[in-house]
């Protein structure tokens, strides 16, 4: 074991300094970009299937009570840096300014198992600004609930490092993980995209949906992740609306 080598789960580099948010002028209504919470919401096959059970039910009981059982990475959710770094915060240490603000939606249609190259991001518009939120629409949300959903695209490692250099604050995708799809991973796979993004304080939202109508525009986002203490992920109600500029 080498001296000075980072321990597994350590090495978080903190949140990047970002520009102050400017005053925004909305140009449309809020749109919900979240999969409804249900037993049918998208969930990676490596995790238990979500369960929703009625513990109390009218008219047998005086009220209805539902018990929900699912991992924090099922459905539309946000990853905190604690997902890979034990020396990083869960949601109790993430300010609302990191979960909201302006950004862009890029339409980047992909084939099954594709790895999105750096060149595709560099050519996309509108141009990213420091402090932006980036959501990509690959068309994968429409495949939720089908076998093809498991053959989702991913980000190349070069693309992930480029996003760090652009100083975005949150990356959102319409599939299960921006890292290489499960069945293509070689032994020793170490989730380099998550490490690059979360390691530099860039939050990650997965299983986004409904954002295709916003593609090619600047947008205001709200990622309503639950304030789960020391948690690696949290379900989120994600909202967005078009901006005037």
Write a structural description:
Helix 2 (157-166) packs parallel to helix 3 (192-199). Residues 1-5 have low confidence and may be disordered. This protein has a domain at 73-242: Glucose Oxidase, domain 1, CATH 3.50.30. It has helices at residues 118-123, 157-166, 192-199, and strands at residues 31-32, 51-56, 65-69, 77-79, 100-107, 115-116, 133-137, 154-155, 170-172, 203-206, 218-225, 233-242. It is globular, with a radius of gyration of 18 Å. It has a seven-stranded mixed beta barrel. A two-stranded antiparallel sheet has the order 2-3. Strands 6-8 form a two-stranded parallel ribbon. The chain is mainly β and 245 residues long. Strand 11 (218-225) and strand 12 form a beta hairpin.
Helix content: under 10%
**Mind telling me which CATH architecture of the domain at 73-242 this is?**
3-Layer(bba) Sandwich
List the uncertain runs: 1-5
Q: What's the mean pLDDT score?
A: 95
Distance between the termini: 53 Å
The quaternary state of the protein chains shown equals single chain
Q: Write the H/E string, N to C.
A: EEEEEEHEEHEHEEE
Q: Quickly count the helices.
A: 3
Strand order of the largest sheet: 4-10-9-7-5-11-12
Q: Sheet bearing the most strands, described? A: 7 strands, mixed, barrel
Q: Give the helix/strand class.
A: mainly beta
Highest-level CATH class of the domain at 73-242: Alpha Beta
Q: CATH H level of the domain at 73-242: which superfamily?
A: Putative cyclase
